[in-house]
UniProtKB/TrEMBL annotation:
It comes from Davidia involucrata (Dove tree). Belongs to the Orn/Lys/Arg decarboxylase class-II family. SpeA subfamily. This is Arginine decarboxylase. Keywords: Decarboxylase, Lyase, Magnesium, Pyridoxal phosphate, Spermidine biosynthesis. InterPro entries: Ala_racemase/Decarboxylase_C, Arg_decrbxlase, De-COase2_CS, De-COase2_N, De-COase2_pyr-phos_BS, Orn/DAP/Arg_de-COase, PLP-binding_barrel. Its EC number is 4.1.1.19. GO terms for biological process: L-arginine catabolic process; response to cold; spermidine biosynthetic process.
Length: 719
């Protein structure tokens, strides 16, 4: 191996003042990468896929496990792009949507027929949202019919999962035929659910969860006066006093539910809200006191719903059935005590298989599908109620994660990548390095050379590391120059690379804030599928981790589904070609939880529906992400005053007409999004987020078309 021989050859002519033998044996060329279990980077099962002699989109689908976590909504098409199947298994081939074409339509400049939106970008597919809701309803309908269950399923969507106006309105519209309702956990959520359900089914439930004060309870009672099917769920025993008092004052007969603390608990991260010591709900003792107080107040008939929550991401139907069975027993006891029970609300917990493993042993997977989930719930409730001769209740669930996760995709761009090329090291450079070494350092160098000649690769690494540490100490003491320190870094990198022990993982810098757009990864280590959305007909040549734009060491993604610490990626194209990555299954929680760390705001958003014609789609709404002005206002700054201050300073200190030009540039910066921009297309949100600006070299902050309304569309047909 010539590169390895380089520094060995340097030992043949020892540096001045350092006597060592020049009769060392000639170095042997390595015949391959040695097998070093303690030094080489572990290669995962994906290596078998990457080693395929001929590459095709199907190989990429297998490598990224797209058919496991993505079915039935995502696949790889013959062009090597991610394809969206908006109707799930019912999607016909000509109805599939090429995700890359959606991104290009959204991000290309308006002069090229695009919408001029800046990345990062959230792409919503309301057709997928509708299919998820219909699939959930169908699963329960099938279980009810096949098991002879004598009531029906009537779900609610917990808006905390994603409070976006159009998401909530879509769910109300799509779910109206199923009497699908909403769940609120705070006063603003209650206000938005009240407003949205005015257009929903009159039978749809409005479930009021969360901690409550007098204003919250009054709002819920007002909703009942507005003929909304509102249920006030008691999370704390003392809330009952307020409900009784305010209902009498407002002359409203309330419908009341109780949230029970079950003994059933799952051990995963999301199980912390369940069990006897869970954050929410009433113990059996407290439930009995509630029943007694309602009876004494002549309001026991108002108690009609039992609610419980085992925890999000319930891993197995065995645990699910156990918890539902325990709750059904409490339900039957409440019936026995005289309550006019009607609904059992099983809460959330319907999980998402984020990694496609169908495992019950993981926080990011579940071992069941919609059909198995619904069957387990119906069977558990039916069994207990039949044993107690209790009428079958309406089954309600709050399956927010399962409804909204699939419909939203986060698109972001890799803008650069680290390079691991080791620069060549000349004999003169090595001699210069050795001349500055201490006696111990020169000994390490000699030992390294000898170990290389003998082919003792582990020993090479030992001496290389030892040499490097000595040089660092010399540099700190001031006895070694920066050129020599760089030379020893190159030498040690060369040693690692030549014997196969170097770290092949590159860092891909992405135009994104993880804290804003993927906060669950940073906060709880939640993993989401992340894959390139194009070039999947090409073999990925490198592995990489992702580093975001924030000035924070936590702003990186170095854990991926499948237990991987890196992601197979393609080389970035040097001719201006763009490399897009997508994060999937992130439609729940991420947008609501995201902050403004480093003042990076949220992404741009487009809503895309399947349209008439082969592989056609329509963008029904396009909204740019928050501008720099918008995120500054979040922290109580006043962008208009800031701009005026900077403008006056530019006019004062910059002459020859340059002040006005600088002021225009400043205005553009305030109006643009905080993320990195392409020189050909600079977009920005208006301060009220109802419009967007298109900026180029000749236009600074000039308003263009406003964000489109629900009925406006840009149709884009692709042959």
């Amino acid at each position: 191996m010539p590169a390895m021989s380089c520094f060995v050859d340097a030992a043949v002519a020892p540096p001045p003042g350092y006597p060592w033998s020049s009769s060392l044996p000639a170095p042997e060329t390595f015949s391959g990468v040695p097998s070093l279990t303690n030094t080489t980077t572990s290669i995962t099962s994906s290596a078998a896929t990457i080693d395929q002699p001929h590459w095709s989109p199907s190989h990429s689908a297998a490598l990224y496990q797209i058919d496991c976590w993505g079915a039935p909504y995502f696949s790889v098409n013959s062009s090597g792009d991610i394809s969206v199947r908006p109707y799930g298994t019912a999607t016909l081939p000509h109805q599939e949507i090429d995700l890359l074409k959606v991104v290009k339509k959204a991000s290309d400049p308006k002069s090229s027929g695009g919408l001029g939106l800046q990345l990062p970008l959230i792409v919503r597919f309301p057709d997928v949202l509708k299919n998820r809701l219909e699939s959930l309803q169908s699963a329960f309908d099938f279980a009810i019919q096949t098991q002879g269950y004598e009531s029906h399923y009537q779900g609610v969507y917990p808006v905390k999962c994603n409070q976006d106006r159009f998401v909530v309105e879509d769910i109300v519209k799509f779910g109206s035929q199923f009497r699908f309702g909403l769940e609120a956990g705070s006063k603003p959520e209650l206000l938005l659910t009240m407003s949205c359900l005015c257009k929903g089914s009159p039978e749809a439930l409005l479930v009021c969860n969360g901690f409550k004060d007098a204003e919250y309870i009054s709002l819920a009672l007002v909703a009942r006066k507005l003929l909304l099917n509102t249920v006030i769920v008691l999370e704390q025993e003392e809330e009952l006093d307020l409900v009784i008092e305010l209902s009498r004052k407002l002359a409203v007969r309330p419908v009341i539910g109780v949230r029970a603390k079950l003994r059933t608990k799952h051990s995963g991260h999301f199980g912390s809200t369940s069990g006897e010591k869970g954050k929410f709900g009433l113990t059996t003792t407290q439930i009995l006191r509630v029943v007694k107080q309602l009876e004494q107040s002549g309001m026991l008939d108002c108690l009609q719903l039992l609610h419980f929550h085992i925890g999000s991401q319930i891993p197995s139907t065995a645990l699910l059935g156990d918890g539902v069975g325990e709750a059904a027993q409490i339900y039957c006891e409440l019936v026995r005590l005289g309550a006019c029970m009607r609904v059992i609300d099983i809460g959330g917990g319907l999980g998402i298989d984020y990694d496609g493993s169908k495992s019950a042993e993981s926080d990011i997977s579940v071992s069941y599908g919609l059909q198995e989930y619904a069957a387990a719930v119906v069977e558990a409730v039916r069994f207990v109620c039949d044993r107690k001769s209790v009428k079958h209740p309406v089954i309600c669930s709050e399956s927010g994660r399962a409804i909204v996760s699939h419909h939203s995709i986060l698109i972001f761009e890799a803008v650069s990548a680290s390079v691991n090329d080791v620069p060549p090291i000349s004999s003169n450079g090595l001699k210069y390095l050795v001349e500055g070494l201490t006696e111990d350092g020169r000994a390490d160098y000699l030992n390294l050379s000898a170990a290389a000649n003998r082919g003792e690769y582990d020993t090479c690494l030992l001496y290389a590391d030892q040499l490097k540490q000595r040089c660092v100490e010399q540099f700190k003491e001031g006895s070694l120059g920066i050129e020599q320190l760089a030379a020893v870094d190159g030498l040690c990198d060369l040693v690692s690379k030549e014997i196969g022990a170097s770290n092949p993982i590159r860092t891909y810098n992405v135009n994104l804030s993880i804290f804003t757009s993927i906060p669950d990864f940073w906060g709880i280590g939640q993993l989401f599928p992340i894959v390139p959305i194009h070039r999947l007909d090409q073999r990925p040549g490198v592995r990489g981790m992702l580093s975001d734009l924030t000035c924070d060491s936590d702003g990186k993604i170095d854990k991926f589904i499948g237990g991987e610490s890196s992601l197979p990626l393609h080389e970035l194209e040097g001719d201006g070609g763009r490399y897009y990555l997508g994060m999937f299954l992130g439609g729940a929680y991420e947008e609501a939880l995201g902050g403004v760390h480093n003042l990076f705001g949220g992404p741009s958003v487009v809503r895309v529906s399947q349209s008439d014609g082969p592989h056609s789609f329509a963008v029904t709404r396009a909204v740019p992400g928050p501008s720099c002005s918008d995120v500054l206002r979040v922290m109580q700054h006043e962008p208009e005053l800031m701009f005026q201050t900077l403008k006056h300073r530019a006019e004062e200190f910059v002459h020859d007409g340059g002040g006005m030009t600088m002021a225009h540039a400043l205005a553009r910066s305030f109006h643009n999004m905080p993320y990195l921009t392409s020189s050909c297309c600079l977009t920005a949100a208006a301060s009220n987020n109802n419009g967007y600006y298109h900026c180029n070299d000749n236009s600074y902050g000039t308003p263009a078309d406003s964000a489109t309304g629900e009925d406006d569309q840009w149709s884009y047909c692709c042959a």
